[in-house]
Amino acid sequence: MAGISLKNITKSWGAFVGVDNQSLEVHDKEFLVLLGPSGCGKTTTMRMIAGLEDPTSGEILIGERIVNDDLPKDRDIAMVFQNYGLYPHMTVFDNIAYPLKVRGTPKSEIAPRVNKAAEQVELTEFLHRKPKALSGGQRQRVALARAIVRTPQVFLMDEPLSNLDAKLRVTMRAELKHLSHQMQITTVYVTHDQIEAMTLADRIAVMKSGRIQQLGTPEEIYNDPANLFVASFIGSPAMNLIHGTVKDGQFITAGGRDVMKAGKGNRDNIVLGVRPEDLSIVDAGTGDFDVPVYAFENTGESVLVTGQFGKQRITAKGGRHVRKEIDEVVGIKADPDHIYMFDAKGGGRLDL
Amino acid sequence: MRDRHLKYVLVLPAILVVFATAVWPLFESLRLSFYFGKLSRPNFPQDFIGLENYTWAFLEEPAFWNSVWVTASYTFYTVVLTTLCALGLALLLAPGGKLRRGVQMLLIIPFAMSPALIGVSFRFMFNPEFGLFDAFFGFVFPPLADISWLSDPTLAFWVCIMADVWGWIPFLTLVLIGGLASIPRDTIEAAQVDGASGWRVLKDVTLPQLAPVLAVVIILKSIFSLKTFDQVYMLTNGGPGTATQTLSHYVYFNGLKYSNIGYSAAVAWLMVIPMIFLTYAYAKFVFRKREA
Q1: Tally of domains within chain A
Q2: Closest approach of chain B CAs to the CA of A274, in angstroms?
Q3: How many CB atoms lie within 10 A of CB B252?
Q4: Residue contacts between A and B (CB atoms, under 8 Å)
């Protein structure tokens, strides 16, 4: 059992900087998710922890030990790859047994441990098959079983669910959560899927352009976004981001027509952020402002009403029985506790 | 109707050329192998003698068995050495390998040379008076200075092997680089993380996945080695004595030097036997159905 610490890690290829002077502490037994769009440096960060990539500068510690110069095999880690990385010429049993075999585990111990790992991921009946005779979900389980057959200091998972279809992904997500609760092993998990991040993580590190934008619990990331990027990246449907100015405690949209109570003082170049679920759809004239309906979408469990807000649009989430027509004028009411202000230029959160 | 027949008309010249240069000589040589056929005498081919040319080779000709032995050992050593060297180089040159740019270009040079040219240049390099090797060994290791490489049967054999290996490494290296590039990187990294040393990754993960390509390389090289002629012809001309006389060279010698066309055709057809096995194995590896 051990935590991981990254100290001023930089990874660059020539002029391109993949990870930029990044520090990060992963606590013992924590499930930390690196979340970000593709190319943000999350996979690179994980590969440096694994030893598959050497940092250009900085230190990596697993437990108390600096592992910069250790080969992957000496770092006592287990990793699940995006494409699973199963050995195609070996049976499922041999795949799962491989980490034990190369580490010189006595033969008599291997079979029971492989069987136990296979049992944990419900693979017992496929042990004699080759990977190519398995479905995507089953391959995923083999990769998982190969990781949990030992008790490593650290688990690394590189978008392990991204190659599964949507339904299977949800099932595997729950199984992964259950498994990680059982194992109690420090885990770093890379994904671009914010729902995976929200559901699995003890803490999330949201990354962009090689830097962590915000590090916090899912609640903190969701309810208290540190900047415009985090605000826009987390949440589905995405947070409404409306450009405008604040004048005497009133927010005026960039179009200059619609006004609502928000902020204080005077300031230009503001982005107001509010999540669709923090807006409610009310009768015209009774909300913060009225908008004509631009689009009405029914997702079954809820409805989305998009209104024209100045020259911009705003989406509100309503109960599943709400029905609105296009061009109908509706009132929108915002939850004042969940309105965020950002600097339009730097993207930083403003305390207005 | 025109269009349907036009395509046959269009390929006809090619078919005729192939027939005239490959198919007809092939069957003609098979026919001649059953004759006593001496090109230097009138009324060629002279007498139909059935399988006598074949039995003669098997029962009465130590020179035939000598070249079978030369060809077999030549094939064995060149295949093993070329494959090992090519594999080593491919591992170094493959994506993620330790050497790459520049060296890859350099690698093409031996492959771009014709085998006859390789033979000639190696003959010069091993010349006992002004050869590069002589000068080199004489400088580095004086006792080796005055060895005449090409007049010692064993040494001449090994010089032939060396020239052949040198000439074939690049092509096979390129094939193996292609094979290595198609191995999913994930599997290699997974093995590294699972705790395997570099050697074990190679043995447990890389080589098993490279096996089909490696098999193709070995089979191809065996075929090429079995029919080696031009290099040996230029380098040693089968000598000293018959120490480096491969089967192809033996066929050439009997047919064109002694004009025993019937006999040499028979020997050439004997060479077909191992070739058929190798070709069959090659086709099996290259065209085998990929299991989904």
Answers
A1: 2
A2: 41
A3: 19
A4: 69
